[in-house]
Amino acid sequence: MARQIIVLGAGMVGVSVAWHLVRQGHSVTLVDRRAPGRETSFGNAGIIQREAVRPYAFPRDLSTLLRVLPNRQVDIRYRPGGMLRAAGPLWRYWRESAPGRYRDIVPEYASLIGLCLEAHAPMIEAAGAEHLVRRDGWLEVYRSEAAMSARLEEARENERRFGVRFAALDAEALAALEPDLSPGLAGAIHWLDPWTVADPGGLVEAYARAFEAEGGRLEQAEVRDAAPVEGGWRVVTEAGERRADDLVMALGPWSRDWLARLGLSVPLFVKRGYHMHYASAGQARLNHWVMDEEVGYLLAPMRAGIRLTTGAELERLEAPPHLAQLGAAEARARELYPLGERLDAEPWKGARPCTPDMKPVIGPVPGREGLWCAFGHGHQGFTLGPATGRLLAQIMAGETPEIDMRPFRVDRF
């Protein structure tokens, strides 16, 4: 039976949920203060990461902790105030990253990642967005043989357990693919399965247009209140009041505060990130998305220029930007590839919504009839949005979802 549904949040996850629900015949309104794909979905690395079957664990080995402690690394930085604000979730994150627990989490997480390409494919087709997508994988570049050998051992296990395809490239093979990278590199892992996107925000916008073409309604307005009412839910925005049978919370890092208003506590914290676009110097050309794995930044040849994305910054969600991490990444990137001038007036800043056990929250809220969750995807909201939308739509329709959704339930906390 068709229902009235409001989806809060027009990032990759919210747009994907809305698209799947409207395709089921429901009356769906998608609400966000900004246009679709303008928050975290806009600024990511633009990779649909089929290879990312292992979520990012909290470092527990002493050598990594000692490396990070001076707070000058490219891959991760922290602010004491931000760490204190998220102390509880970060402590749980550290515990969940213990080897035994992490071993249990990986196959649960991988079950979701395994759906990402087949979930994106029909949305790309419906949106007419093939021109934004490449299917030639991406490169994880290594400066040392030792680091590459260790990663290759893990890659072989991922291939055996989860069907992840890759090719090991020595220095000569890497130079053939990317002749403008600096010499002296040990080689690279070429992840063969992932798709890359030349304009991540543009892809979300295209998905949102496909949602509207199916009869969905898009409302750009600030949400002021969301509360249960008899027979459903009420959402108040600056444009007025709407009522619906069901409410889907897909507000990324802002989901925690909205659920808190409803008396629900979810241990969500953020990892912030930055990007900047550059021209290439001279006649240099970057042919693939390239991750400088041992340093911790990524270069992506996008429509807006070469996008440099940083690693993680542990800081409060709405704190002002701290640009030293981006500056450090830029300095190292110029050693790897001949970047030209900056193309953006100022760096972009976004925030990844993370959970202590590294898994998103997908499904109903027990005791809150008609309230549904779709957030907490950490580094992989762009990758997992369509799979999340498909699975949540299956649950909301009373169908048996294609994977076990118990690891992603909200009451696991």
Automatic annotation (TrEMBL):
InterPro entries tied to this protein: FAD-dep_OxRdtase, FAD/NAD-bd_sf, K_uptake_TrkA
PANTHER family to which the protein is assigned, alphabetical: GLYCINE OXIDASE, SARCOSINE DEHYDROGENASE-RELATED
Keyword flag Oxidoreductase: yes
Gene3D superfamilies registered for this protein in UniProt: D-Amino Acid Oxidase, subunit A, domain 2 (3.30.9.10), FAD/NAD(P)-binding domain (3.50.50.60)
MF GO annotations: oxidoreductase activity
Keywords, in A-Z order: Oxidoreductase
Protein's recorded name: FAD-binding oxidoreductase
Segments forming domain FAD dependent oxidoreductase: 5-394
Keyword check for Oxidoreductase: yes
Pfam entry (one): DAO
EC number of this enzyme: 1.-.-.-
Species name: Halomonas koreensis
